[in-house]
Amino acid sequence: MSQMHQQTAGAGSTCPGCEEPLEAGDLFCGACGYDLSARPAAAQDRPTVAMNGSSAAQSAPAPDASSQWPVAPDADSSDMPVPAHLPTDLAGTDSAGGELSPNAGEARTEPGEVRTDAPFARPAEPDEYPLPAPGAHPGPEPAADPRTVLSDPTPPAGTKLCVACRSGRVDPDGYCENCGHAQPRERDHMEQELDAVAAVSDRGLRHHRNEDAFAISSAALPDGSPAVVAIVCDGVSSATRPDEASLAASRAANESLLDALPRGTHPQQAMHDAILSASDAVNALAAEPTQAREHSPHQNAPACTLVGSIVAGGLLVVGWIGDSRAYWVPDDRNGPTVRLTEDDSWAAQMVAAGLMNEAEAYADERAHAITGWLGADAYELEPHTASFKPDRAGVVVVCTDGLWNYAESVEEMARAVPADSALRPLHSAQVLVGHALDGGGHDNVTVAILPFRLVPQGAGSA
Fold first, then answer.
1. By C-alpha distance, which of 237, 235, 216 is closest to 227?
2. Cα 188–Cα 155–Cα 141 angle in degrees, nearest 5
3. Cα-trace Rg, the chain
4. Which residues, other chains included, contact 297 with Cβ-Cβ below 8 Å and sequence gap of 6+?
5. Residues 6+ apart with CB under 8 A from 325
């Protein structure tokens, strides 16, 4: 069994624990009981790795046995935290024997040296950073994070943005390039107002597109008096490209009237010729390339209906083919509201033949099967025209069946037309379209309101 060597206190020595003087031969401190036999021998710092440029063969000088570490001042820790001491608060030397620098807590490195005793040492930053030479090409910049790149908030003028995401651009096919949302077509809702006529067309609530079309205009007669025109067309949904047929017919009829009326053509004759021009325009749509027929052999010819009205020189002229209608509604409502057209339909034929009354005929599922239309496959084109000389002021309501389906009788139509229609034709057309949408909006609906102002006897041409 090995035994530890016991040391005894020498004369003039003090207790290393409490600094009390010791007597010669003491084994324990009489004040604090410190075991003087456990007093460790002074250790010498002999590094085994190179530090601060010294070699392993060099050893640090042995500390002077007579040097004493200064005693730290006593601190009352009863009501305050123990003060923190930095290495520079005490005089001393580092492991190489040099004095501690004011930055002793930081690692000191020589250029190119790797420290093993300072794992968190940071390399010193240079005072200046070198700049590239003039004309030198810098290295490639890192690619920008696409999540932080904002789209152009102000797209070029005329760019159509998506109505759904409000950021994607609309391609020529009508779809958003960003989210793919189908955009509303321009014809889904259209409004137009002139001084003496207005029209509104809406897709309705059930159809995927608007197959109606209208054209309104005004011209001057040879005597200088005005002639006001309203044309409304309804594409036949069972035909091919009905939206193109209605648009072509309305434009052709309107252009024909604007050409004929200023030349002095009687308005009723001008309306008849306009319907023929509209028929030619629709027939031209059926002339397709042979290969188109090969790919779609079951396509039929585009087709539509037409109804139009002219107010000129105290004369009211209407013309139609199909089941779109025109109504006369007097301003004072004292006179009767009159339907000015007769439908080219199965129901109208049943009533005319005396086989059914009007209520029974229009309740039949075949009621709206038309017997007359504009199109290359029409049986025989027979334009209908009529002229009237109203004895009071009123308005002409020119509309498709998308409206009159919700106001079939003249009494219902009279109640639906606002009392101030002659003064506010656009507002009246909007109200009537809203009436159809409120009723269900099962079809496209188009309405034109054409005010008729009473002309004194002897004025204008008839």
1. 216
2. 140
3. 52
4. none
5. 307, 339, 340, 341, 343, 398, 399, 401, 404
Q: What is the 3-state secondary structure (H, E, C) of 309-369?
A: EEEECCEEEEEEECCCEEEEEECCCCCCCEECCCCCEHHHHHHHCCCCCHHHHHHCCCCCC
The one-letter amino acid code at 375 reads G
DSSP state of 176: B
User: 48-88, pLDDT tens digit by residue?
Assistant: 444 444 444 444 444 444 445 455 455 454 555 555 555 55
Which backbone phi and psi does 347 adopt, to 5 degrees?
Answer: -65, -45
Are 399 and 232 contacting, i.e. CB atoms less than 8 angstroms apart? yes
- Are 392 and 335 spatial neighbours (Cβ–Cβ below 8 Å)? yes
Which stretch of 198-207, 298-307, 312-321, 420-429 has the lowest confidence by average pLDDT? 298-307
Asked whether the beta carbons of 34 and 17 are under 8 A apart, the reply is yes
The Cβ of residue 390 has, within 10 Å, a number of other Cβ atoms equal to: 19
Closest CA to 308 of 341, 259, 347: 341
CA distance 328 to 317: 11
Locate 417 and state its tokens: 């037309």
Distance CA(270)–CA(231), nearest Å, equals 13
Q: What is the dihedral of CA 337, 341, 343, 348, to 10 degrees?
A: 60
The Cα–Cα gap between 16 and 98 comes to 27
Please give the Cα distance from 169 to 163 (Å, whole number).
10
From the list 243, 233, 234, 228, the residue with the least C-alpha distance to 198 is 228
How many angstroms separate the first and last alpha carbons of the chain?
A: 146
CA nearest 321: which of 333, 305, 335? 305
Is residue 401 pLDDT above 90, yes or no? yes
**Are residues 321 and 344 in contact, defined by beta-carbon separation less than 8 angstroms?**
yes
Percent of the chain topping pLDDT 90:
48
318 and 309 Cβ atoms separated by less than 8 Å:
yes
Which run of H or of E encompasses 387?
strand 384-388
Residue 341 in tokens: 């057209």
Q: Is 327 exposed, middle or buried (0-12, 13-18, 19+ CB in 10 A)?
A: buried
Backbone conformation region of residue 16, classed left if phi is above 0, alpha if psi is from -120 to 50, else beta: alpha
> Rounded to the nearest 10 degrees, what angle do helices 267-284 and 242-260 cross at?
150
